[in-house]
Batch of 4 targets.
Target 1
Amino acid sequence: MPDLHIHFATMTGNAETVATDTQSRATDEGWTAHVHDLGDLTPQDLTDRELAVFIVSTWGDGEPPDDAADFWYALEEANLDLSGMRFAVFGLGDKDYTEFNGFARQLDARLATLGATRLLDRFDADLDFDETFPAWADRFFTRLAVERETSGT
Ligand SMILES: Cc1cc2nc3c(=O)[nH]c(=O)nc-3n(C[C@H](O)[C@H](O)[C@H](O)COP(=O)(O)O)c2cc1C
């Protein structure tokens, strides 16, 4: 099976913590997992991903974290073929904001528009993300196990 690529976008570190927790869980489940800060990437870097997860918070009025803004504006304009990618999005937000998980919603939609296939529906976590993460991780890794079985590797 391909490696799992875990991407995060954060302002104050919550999404990065969830990303490293996801990596630990992936390792426990027998996956080789790499963690990437979207702020260090360009959209082109996504074209070799086969299994990907995006763990992103929302700031401002539905905006990406500052470090991920250049990546996001480039992805909005990019004409990429991501049809080789299967992905899931875990958003971190706060229900008190009108644009609850606005960036996670936009990213999830854009990846699908560029041809990527969802492994799971987007999950919009609230401030209690540490309580909702374990159940999401159970669903995500169960889904990955099915992918691994059906691919026969
Ligand atoms: C100034 C400010 C603006 C925020 N804007 C939004 C928002 O528009 N939508 C949302 O769902 N959450 C919003 N949040 C909540 C954050 O996304 C949430 O606290 C998240 O856990 C931060 O994760 P991070 O540390 O990975 O950046 C905002 C928080 C702050 C402090």
Target 2
Amino acid sequence: MTTASTFARHPLEGLAQFGALAGQSLRVLRAVLRNPLEALPPEVYREPILARRVLHRNIVHVMAPELIHQALVTEGDKLDKGDSVRRPLGPALGEGLLIAEGADWRWQRRALAPIFRPAQVQSFLPAMLEAARRSAARLRAVPPGQAVAIEQETMRATFDVIVETMLSGPAHIDVDRAAADITEYLRLTHWANIASLLRLPDWAPYPGRRRGRRAVGYLRGRLMAQVAARRADGAARGDLIDLLLEASDPETGQRMDDTQITDNLVTFLTAGHETTALGLAWTLDLLGRHPAIARRAVAEVDAVTGGSPVLPEHVARLDYVKQVFQEAMRLYPPVPILARRVAEPFALGGTMLWRDTALFIPIHAVHRHETLWEAPHVFDPDRFGPEQVAARHRHAFMPFGAGPRLCIGGGFAMLEAVAILGVLLREIRFTSAEAVAPAPRVDITLRPSSPLRMTVAARRG
Ligand code: HEM
């Protein structure tokens, strides 16, 4: 692999170059507004690293797994999340785990780790299966022939799971309203991305800024009320709220106030349900389009359960179902682009990354990279057989990120997804109602540009 390009020289070196760069910058801005996936240059699907200058800003895309390792793991402490994460997500997630930096991030991560230990995650499995059964019951109630937007159903199911497991019980949140608000909020983040690319000052107004804040007001308000109620009743339940109430900064001994706790609850609710729901929706759509693979997955569920309902002990044996979900996340990674800012300069693959360079890992491109995958656009769950996985660089497939900021909920998400798929495939037959799969678009997460409509029929009760 060779380096595709190094940074262009200063744009004022020649008028022609300036014009070309201005044209390129405008194209990038328009694409970012329409769909950031379209703003990715085509070279990211075949080159190891790509360095460009857009709007007087150094921008680097890193695709080669060994360079990703160097950037996110070896030199990880020279990067921070920077403006391109804080600006779009800050108004919703405040100073929660996904956004916090440095010592503030470290103690929060340590404090929250216990709830994601394997044994703890395994204890959530019955609640995950129950939520899956409720989802199957809703789908069985759909009149024959009527198509459903499957991503709406998977959003309900995963929201149900996160509320049951992290908040230990109903939070009196109107799920449909919260999900619609989150969708609206994420849609408006394109303007924040532009503000970040243009390096507008924090106070500068831009379209959607106030509407975005309003969109998450309902969810934040409900969660704030939940925290206040828990402080007042004082009874411990061992859930995420308890962990957040008990957490204290080891250096200062300071505890989180209600706003910081709410920041984290919104973080876990949104990061924890939306991503898994989208992964599941794309999986069901792909299965609807690949009947032979769907039959093999259903046959595995039937063989493992022996025809009984899916029980907790069955889930770890659904190997092929797990491979199907992994392959769907390869083609449609729920978090398709990671963003970082270079805080301290370092060299990467022959390219010098100066302070303030915007660094992107386009996971979507890594997962469909010409040099990493054979027939990269083909849906083939056998790629995730044990031997194939062992033969690949671990960052060739990285839906949960890499390095210290690796998704804290990766194990939770995998267990939940396989449990939900196991139940749904056992109980429901899915058929795609659209001849062609809708194109994916990026609103922070990778969503279908139009609903993933499917018809559903009961397989068994
Ligand atoms: C298929 C489902 C999921 C996918 C694809 C996913 C993906 C990711 C990725 C790529 C990151 C790293 C972001 C970065 O480096 O900038 C991340 C971080 C995070 N995820 Fe997930 N995630 C999923 C499910 C979950 C679940 C179930 C939870 C919680 C219950 C969760 C909570 C978080 C949190 C809190 C962070 C920030 C971690 C930190 O910075 O220390 N995610 N996720």
Target 3
Amino acid sequence: MTGNQTEPTDRESGDWRSELRDSLGVCGLPDQQWADFLAALEVNHGSVMRLHRRWIDDAKLQCDSDGLRAGHLGPPVPWYHGAFRHGGTWQGRRPADTLRYAAGDFFLQDAGSLLALAACGADTDELAGSLVCDLCASPGGKATALVEAVGESGFVLANEPIRSRLAALEFNLTRTGSDRWAISQKDPEDLASQLTGQFDCVVVDAPCSGQTLVARGKQSEGSFSARQVRHSAARQNRILDAAVRLLRPGGKLIYSTCTFAVDENEAQVQRIVETTSMVPVQLEALQDYRSVTDGCYRLWPHLHDCAGAFAARLDADGDAMSSRDEASPPHGRDRFSSAKRHKNRRDRLRPRRFEFDPGDWITDDVAGLHQRTIIRGDVAMCVPLEAPDWVPLIAAKLPELAYCTGKTWKPAHGLSRRAFASVTPVQTIQVDDARARRYLSGNVIDCALRGWVVVTWQDRPLGWIKSNGSTGKNHLPVPYRLTGG
Ligand SMILES: C[S@@+](CC[C@H](N)C(=O)[O-])C[C@H]1O[C@@H](n2cnc3c(N)ncnc32)[C@H](O)[C@@H]1O
């Protein structure tokens, strides 16, 4: 795409601007905004920092001022509590090179992607204790916020059908420090057949023509073509129909895209309203971003300093859904019968005794108290006891507990990161900034302890070392290391 701006009257065939203008349909911009919109489309708006909820005061959802403001956080993102602009560097470094980022204090994402999270109340207590499905989850910009939002009594199933995208999702979920998640790799229709009527909230951040991503070089001009829009809309129809089936009566559906085309946005919502008992929800907090269709919200690059975004909120009419689902078994264990039939034979769900002793690494009795442990091949994973029965049967990946090399079991990196939540390490070593940076760069660090030790920085767990009483060998997996020096 070139930087040339085109007048609204330019309609020669094949021009991406006219295709874009056509695709906006009823959401078309007034002529006087068109040039600004086109110019803003080509600007890279940069990412914002979404703070982990543990750094936001629970009672008032006020930003914890401990060092965050001093680190030169910019203005807050108006549509999402706890997200801030940062102006390119923070604490003199790129945000992704800071110790706070390595420790999981914040995530970096486009401000527009926070619109969908605001629509489901992920920045409030609305989702606390909920069972949430993120149906199109990788790389996890939304799933990580959802995991934080459901807290210690909820659970998130992060589904991503494309295998090659699971690693990024797992990486980001591990950074949350929570064990209240599982990853599935299912086609949405298959998932809906297995888990009909289970979820309090389903988030569909749908694959789309990606018209907002052109400035970031992630999408070509082809994303503006009517053909591409039609192709995406057809896929969205299928995903949305599956999403509705996954909802329990009274549950909420969040639909979002990163495209402008009305056929992928408002028209999808309209279709769902007309063909199901879902009801659009007007959200007081998002009134400034209302679109032409009830329950729909938009951000524009020239108005809101972000790539642009669409989000909608629809709630399931409890009564209508109950009668629709009368033929289905009630909410509860029976629902999982079909999933149970497909029980994964690789799982050893309740090993008679561990082939390793997690008590060498953590003080909690992982087996008996809070977790079910599942061993698949060389990896031991865990599920909170209160999570639904179907979780191990559906999950492609779960929070890791340990892994085996040769005959030796070693603690998984994810276990060290959960030192915030369910896990208490037997041994920790507190390090200052310089040693933290050395550790996060993959180096050994001095340590007078022996055995497995969690390295902590400002009380935040960073990862494991195995120490011989003088030197701690670095066990931080490469993807979690800092690259900025
Ligand atoms: C817009 S991205 C999701 C971004 C993610 N929610 C986040 O916030 O980081 C859409 C995702 O949907 C996945 N996807 C592709 N086809 C799909 C399908 N048929 N059903 C569900 N998800 C699909 C893509 O692989 C991609 O990871």
Target 4
Amino acid sequence: MFLTKKEEQMCDGEFGETIRKSMDILVALGDIYGASKLVDITSAQVSGVSYKTIGQAGLEYLEDLASEEFEYSGINASLNPPGTDLDNWEALGFPKEFSIKQNQIVDAYGKLGISKTCTCTPYLVGNVPRFRDHVSWSESSAVAYVNSVIGARTNREGGPAALAAAIVGKTPLYGFHLDENRKANLIVNVNTELSGADWGALGYIVGKTVGGGVPYFKVQNSPNNNDLKTLGAALASSGSVALYHMENVTPEWSAAGKDDVEDYMFVGDKEILETRQKLTTTDREADLICLGCPHASLEEIKNVANIVEGKTIKNKLWICTSVSVKATADRMGYTKIIEASGGNVVCDTCMVVAPIEDMGFEVIGVNSAKAANYVPSMCGLDVVYDDVENLIHFE
Ligand SMILES: C[C@@](O)(CCOP(=O)(O)O)CC(=O)O
Ligand code: SF4
């Protein structure tokens, strides 16, 4: 891979250890994937934040990296969800030891220059690249969204690579950064109208078929942005999709080369219904309903407030989101309505990266196919997959 003189000096440690270690990661990646050079990025999104997934070793690595003096690149970078509500963990019943460690991890990232905005939907709260920008994002659902809906360019980075990219402000130029790798290779004809949890079911079905490919959707009814975030999250979890196109919806659909695609699949009512049923692992009722995978938008919180207003919820309810979205929900009065009905708007964390398996819950109700896919494997708990309206039961 070609390196400029300054990049070589960065590799040689002339700009300090933190920069040298970061360049090591980026150059190794570039060499493995045949990148021609490094390219400047405008944004990073760094996963590998939860104490549940990175543990003590991860905390020590980050504190060590943050102990050196270096000059941060200055690009806009934010964090993925940690395993606790960073400010409100005690009141919400998150384990103490875990929450303290978790805050130390986030502080170390903060010292490194990464904004402590902890969310998998940074595109809702100020980390919003522009069309065709090169970026380095690692949360898989956010990668799908930023590539597909915004039209910025990133590979599915690992947490350490996105952190390294944020620190130096560059990433190796290969994969989804290049036009030729952004073409579709599977046409998906959806011959039924979709709503709510159907979009996640569609993503789950197609992700399983396309793996790491680029699906091109033809749909009957146009999705909103919440539907697109749900679809992308599911695609990226049952498969390893980083980019999809949707006719007349996503910005690069007309450049996706659909006329050259040879593989087709059809999805109808039957497949959607079967998948919705398959994602539910139990016939018990959920004891915790957990919404906001990926993190909820203000409209999703408003919708829940409308459903629960003036009623008492039987099961527990969390809506996971970022602190910024919750601040607006507070101001709009949605949080108050939800709390009065017995639910909570939970910041920073989510049902997958929080230690919910240690918090006394057994069956988790979700409206996200990604969460339905991961809660059994990452938390060892059962899930019920359905629309919000059907998940919430009242006294
Ligand atoms: C499951 C996931 O959404 C959250 C956990 O990831 P991590 O702990 O941030 O590495 C990661 C992903 O899908 O990229
Ligand atoms: S599992 Fe869902 S809510 Fe949790 S970080 Fe991933 S996309 Fe976000």
